[in-house]
Amino acid sequence: MSHCHTKVEQPSASEILPKLEVPGVLSRVEELVRRYPLPRAALLEVLWLAQEALGWLPDEAIRWAAGKCKVSPVHAFGVSHFYTMYKKAPTGRFFVQICQNVSCHILGAEDIIAHAEKALGIRNGETTADGLFSLLRVECLGACGNGPVLQVNDDFATDVVDGTLAMPAGVGLTPERFDRIVDWCRRRAASLKAEPARDAVGGLFDTKGHPGATGATSAAQRPDYAPAPPALGVAVSRTEDGKVKVVWRAAPESNQLHLESRAGTGDFKLLATMTGKDKEWLGELSAGTEVRVVAQSGERRAKPSNVAKVEG
Amino acid sequence: MATLTVTQNFGKGAKDLSVYKSLGGYSSIGSRLFDLSQFELIDLVTSSGLRGRGGAGFPTGMKWSFVPRNSGKPVYLVVNADEGEPGTFKDHFLMLEDPHRLIEGMIVCGWALGVRTAYIYVRGEFLPAIEALNAALKQAYDAGLLGENIAGSGYSLDIYVHRGAGAYICGEETALINSLEGFKGQPRLKPPFPAVSGAWASPTCVNNVETLMALPWILENGPAAYQALGTPKSGGTKVFSVSGDVKRPGVYEIPLGTPLMELLESPDLCQGVIGTLKGVIPGGSSSPVLTAEEAKKANMDYEALASLKTMLGSGAVVAFNETRGAVGMLASLTRFYAHESCGQCTPCREGTGYADRILKTVVAGKGRDGDLEHMLDIADNISYTTICPLAIADAWPIQNFIGKFRSEFDAEVAKNPGHAQARVSSDFRPGAFW
Known about the structure:
The complex is a heterodimer. Chain A has ten helices and 14 strands. The radius of gyration of chain A is 32 Å and the shape is elongated. Chain A is an alpha+beta fold. Chain A folds into three domains: 1-89 and 198-221, Arc Repressor Mutant, subunit A, CATH 1.10.10.1590; 94-191, 3-Layer(aba) Sandwich (Glutaredoxin), CATH 3.40.30; 225-309, Immunoglobulin-like, CATH 2.60.40. In chain A, the strands form four sheets. In chain A, strands 9, 10, 12, 13 and 14 form a five-stranded antiparallel beta sheet that branches. A four-stranded mixed beta sheet of chain A has the order 2-1-3-4, with helices on one face. Chain A is 30% helix and 22% strand. In chain A, a hairpin with a 6-residue loop joins strand 9 (256-262) and strand 10. By secondary structure, chain B is α/β, with parallel strands linked by helices. Chain B is 42% helix and 13% strand. The N and C termini of chain B lie far apart (52 Å). The model of chain B has no long low-confidence stretch (mean pLDDT 92). Classes of the chains: A alpha+beta, B alpha/beta.
């Protein structure tokens, strides 16, 4: 929520760190940092974790995330203010975001927003006195087929079906449906003490060999994990002086090429080893000999190429 | 029933691995894929005519062929699921309904390019889709379809979901990479292109969700069958997100080259327009708008829409009828682009806000003669002067809405009794409306 011009009372570090420096959060931070080659890349996800734990992002939480991702606090402040979904101020329990962009606009988003402001008694960007609802106009939510559409916290909704928020195909908001959604929220607040926590960035994976789980990021990033390169399109011809010329097309990453040949029906034997930059081979071969090329990149040998036969 | 290549599992509960497998899923992950060399696979995708479905429509096989595999650096695959273009919601539902098809497509692409680590960048608002993807990833890992040594092939791939945090500009591929790296989502200057130097300065392939989800079908049925579904130059099918004044809005997959009016009026598809059609935005909010006359001539493929001076874009069709005011629609778009400008390039940062403030003045009944020319002038000046196309995405709607519905804009200006007075330019100073 954009609160650039609003003074927000900031909690101190000692107030928020007990909620962040807990094993559940810390283990997930470690897993997130391992997902990327550099810890900095986990910044967005660690900010999400902090917002999940605290409900919003106080300045000290941004500082904490910066420390975890090994970036300067000013970098983290810049990033957290660039993205609109990090809340720089607390919101109500039900954060109602109504789309006002073009598809929703033509289907009456302005009427819905006017109705919402009246029904909740607050204006865009405000929170009700009981702390239940916050209202915000947002840009396209990516559910235009259900326009006008809104989000309650992280869920899309245009109606209440069978006692849950729902977005039935092709159904958009009307004032009546909006009222049903508000009623649903109020009833939920009466029966449920707090909203159950949602997993903001996905849980831990418990899979063997998974670099995030084992900390094997550096090994997983080895370039030779690439599959071995192929060599294709081998062709032979005779030059005017009677020599045999073998040409091929090889993948650019091949750093070695093995030219193999066989006479008759035996196994292919190594004829010559060349670098990946070589384009052709010239030499003596008897008629009827078959040749093929096997490319190699690092330790990995590719599948052999097609087989070409030396003509008489 | 037309052939479906991407959405055939909709409504069948394919989120679950066993259901997806029973519908023929993951059948390409085996000898069908791993017997193909990288060259053969890239040639196969090239010959299918598959083009990027995110908006730019760049041929996928050609994009893959630009990724060097001998740079000594790892190759990354980044899936662009930061679907923010107003009117577009196909990727949202593709990920909700069929997350395993995306994973299968990523394994195919990963094998072609030698990718070890891949990221799916999902926009922050799509938490339900992120949850569906994470659940699907866990199932795939448990079944040995991801991680080390996929299906005994010796090939290994890890996939992570990366959640964005609300910035339209991150749908631009270099901004997306910056955001993935933990920076503000501001586009980078090209070249170097991501294929050469993308995420962590390594070769990076950025593909749209729908593009990758078409791959399993292409592998199963062959590139010729896919190409044959569309037109000679635009092969295959495309998923369209239809919204606005139609009886049944939603996500529809049709062969490229289908007439726009068939999409809007076919009983199997949108079932008709509510009211009298006034115009259609054919490819997301930044694509030039079509009047009803033009819409009747339009076929939904890359070349036909280009000949009408608009574009297929992300396939977001917004139809609107005679009761909808063009001024209000354009105002919602200029506000959007002013809000979403990343602030990096001066022409876009200043120009989008400037144009938005002029239109807000007009909508507030304080327009003066010359205001519209002023907006067109700004649109002209911000085009092609910035790092990324966001400024052009703002300029095209301005030029086309004003150009094609000029009388409405003139009438809006004429509501001001003093519209003939000369404008004092400080009326548009920043902050006038904030």
